[in-house]
């Protein structure tokens, strides 16, 4: 994999609310990094989070398609029991 100095790049522009821009500048100063570096880190982390969310959603939908589900009433009864002296086991 190429390092950042060799990667082909493209400029993306976004209007950012001033409080967020100020925080980016503060973090950049504290870490002695450029604003661009901070933005790349943030965007990379967000993309990874969204990819994981999508993976988990696809996995859950596959479980539903395969019939691997838990009855809503069983989950509700379990949730209602959590504040009692005798909580029910986690439904499976």
Structure characterization notes:
- The protein is built from three helices and no strands.
- It is elongated and about 55 Å long.
- It has one domain.
- With about 90 residues, it is mainly alpha-helical.
Helix content: 55-70%
Write down the domain tally. Answer: 1
Order of helices and strands: HHH
* Cα-atom radius of gyration: 22 Å
Low-confidence stretches: none
* Oligomeric state of the chains present here: single chain
The best one-word shape is elongated
Count of individual helical segments: 3
Distance between the termini: 43 Å
Instruction: Tell me the total number of β-strands.
Output: 0
Short description:
α1 packs across α2.
For this entry, give a set of tags.
elongated, single chain, mainly alpha, 92 residues, 3 helices
Helix/strand layout:
Layout (H helix, E strand, L loop, with lengths): L17 H14 L3 H31 L6 H10 L11
Helix pairs in contact: 1-2
């Amino acid at each position: 994999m190429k390092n950042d100095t060799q990667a082909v790049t493209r400029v993306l522009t976004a209007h950012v609310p001033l409080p967020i821009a100020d925080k980016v500048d503060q973090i950049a100063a504290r870490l002695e990094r450029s604003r661009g570096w901070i933005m790349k880190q943030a965007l990379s982390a967000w993309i990874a989070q969204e990819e994981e969310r999508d993976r988990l959603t696809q996995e859950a939908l596959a479980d539903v398609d395969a019939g691997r589900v838990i009855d809503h009433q069983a989950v509700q009864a379990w949730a209602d029991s959590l504040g009692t002296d005798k909580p029910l086991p986690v439904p499976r």
